[in-house]
Amino acid sequence: MPKTQSVVALRKTVAGVPIPDLVRQFGTPLFVYDAAVMEQRIEDLKKFDTVRYAQKACSNLAILDFMRRRGVLVDAVSAGEIYRALWAGYVPGGRPPGIVYTADIFDRDALELVVSRGIHVNIGSPDMIDQLGERAPGSDITLRINPGFGHGHSRKTNTGGEHSKHGIWYEQLNDCLRLAGRYGMTVTGLHMHIGSGTDLDHLAQVCQAMERVAGHVGQTIQSISAGGGLPVPYRPGEEYVDLDAYFQLWDTTRRRLEERFGHRVHLEIEPGRYLVAESGFLISEIRAVKRMGTNIFYLLDAGFNNLARPILYGAYHPMSICPSEGDPDRLQAVVVGGPLCESGDIFTQEEGGYVCRRELPVARPGDFLVIEIAGAYGFVMGSNYNSKPLAAEVLVHNGQPHLVRARQTYEDLVRGERVLKI
Ligand code: LLP
Which atom of ligand 1 lies nearest, measured to the CA of 230? Predict the structure, then answer.
């Protein structure tokens, strides 16, 4: 058994609303987002010309609408995400474009949609140039370049280097420029995203790579995008990235390019996690407390069907307990798991599936356990495994909780299914 993880305390409210009130009104498992935290995160990034929200992190329409009203533009990685952006009121065209489609392929729906709605495409593979070129010759495009290196909080979130499927390999740049030229398409911008949850050292290397590649493409470049990847501190003791320093690096790169090209170069950033992670809380109810040998398990009504990050990456999330009555007087080291019929359904695990313990207040069934910093890649990676309905989502604004996605019903689970009676 690896070492015990660090202490987290009691929590009585989320976004200023008493947890028992939220549970009474909306049930559990429940995702709650604090609008004030998102507001602050948007503000943190205001030095960049454009903040483009990578909606894959949390794509609820209410969140997209919230971002849009605050001047944040949006990224989409699928036809579904384009529809979400449109339904949230984003307008495709413009400069910078309201919606950008960034992906390594077009599935047939996505190609149809970007062509019919005039969505700007950030190209991730040479085949996409052909496919778009045939349907929409003369389009402006941006290229997502894989600079040959990457870094993420896990190997699974590293999106650069030759083991990654993402972006256009930097040595294929000339081929892509030629290909674009054949369809009369202009490369107006470049984009690099080397991984999610990376660090400042790696992010800094991207600036140098960007300058090299942009210099090579030349004068047609009007915009550069730093991609996403900004980490947030999940574990106690972790720190925020120095955003001023990060901006300075990119601003210097941009200015050098402006000097070289003799025109303005627009600077974008494309965060997902940074904008929403800390706003989100997953509230669950402890349904059983049981002992297995030397381990005490808190078993919740939320599992990896609600939050997959621990089972996928061994990701750490802070946790806290909201007792249903009284205050516990001591902590104990426990394993926290969910309801699913699978041994890996454990929230306290490290990459590789090693179960570990967490110091949490003594709790009993009926108490609530809050998994924190769950706003990014939480609900959106949820599933119906074990026929569990997707959780409800609530957005708290000015102290008022608003239901922004109803809990799935059991009927929803079988929607579209058909019995053949054979
Ligand atoms: N831009 C592109 C092209 C991306 O591929 C991503 C993330 C982002 C922006 C946003 O990255 P962020 O700022 O959120 O780090 N499910 C994983 C994260 C996967 C990220 C995939 N791409 C997790 O839970 O950690």
Answer: 13
